[in-house]
Amino acid sequence: MLGKLLFKKRVAFTLAEVLITLGVIGVVAAISMPVLMSTYRKRQLETQIKAAYSTIQQTLRFAEVDGVSYDMAIRDGDDASMKEWFDTFMAPHLKVEQVCYNKPGCWHKMGIVKSMTGAAPRYENNNGIGGNIITFKIAKGAMFNVDGNTAADMASFGIDTDSDGLTFYFDANGDTPPNRVGKDIYIMVWSSQGLVPAGYSRSKAQVEANCLNGDGYFCLQYVISHGWIINDNVWKKKV
Description:
It is a single chain. By secondary structure, the chain is α+β, with helices and mostly antiparallel strands. It has seven helices and six strands, in the order αααβββαβββααα. It has one domain (51-236). The protein has helices at residues 2-10, 15-65, 79-90, 151-156, 204-213, 219-225, 232-236; strands spanning 96-101, 134-138, 143-149, 165-171, 185-191, 194-197. It is elongated, with a radius of gyration of 25 Å.
């Protein structure tokens, strides 16, 4: 009996076994941590995308109650009408941290932002995407770029309408990378169709092709149609 008790007391892990176990745990952690962090960032961004879209959607609903339409911002085709529209009908319903009227400071600098194909979007100057625009940051961290566009432009954004409209680019997580159209930068349009994602008038196949293999302009429509989930192939895509 005493021999059995002594044997049981001697049963333990050796130092070598402990070190090997810790080594295996370290290897597993090193492999899994980047995946877990990437998944966390993706989930966080999906929440931010939905919040940014909802913020503008709610703001424009307030504007519409006040009798404001999309064409009021571009009725004169100049900076003054855009500024008056934003100051009067948008800003009061937003927690704006900073606003820039056709000047740098509230959006990415030229050369940082790219599309899913790796090309720069439609820059005209370093104020943001496009010229004669308003850019602003909100308290939640998202950055927005608002530009007036013609009916012909609307078609290029996947919206079928006979009227001009407003294009909203937004970076859901601000200056935080990847700063790519289709990953953290998305496009929505306010026109006779209402406030809708770019690609709204296109087929499911066209939206998917643009988001997965094109410039990513229709990716907001793709994300919304999939329950606010960023496609894994889009998320992992290198540009």
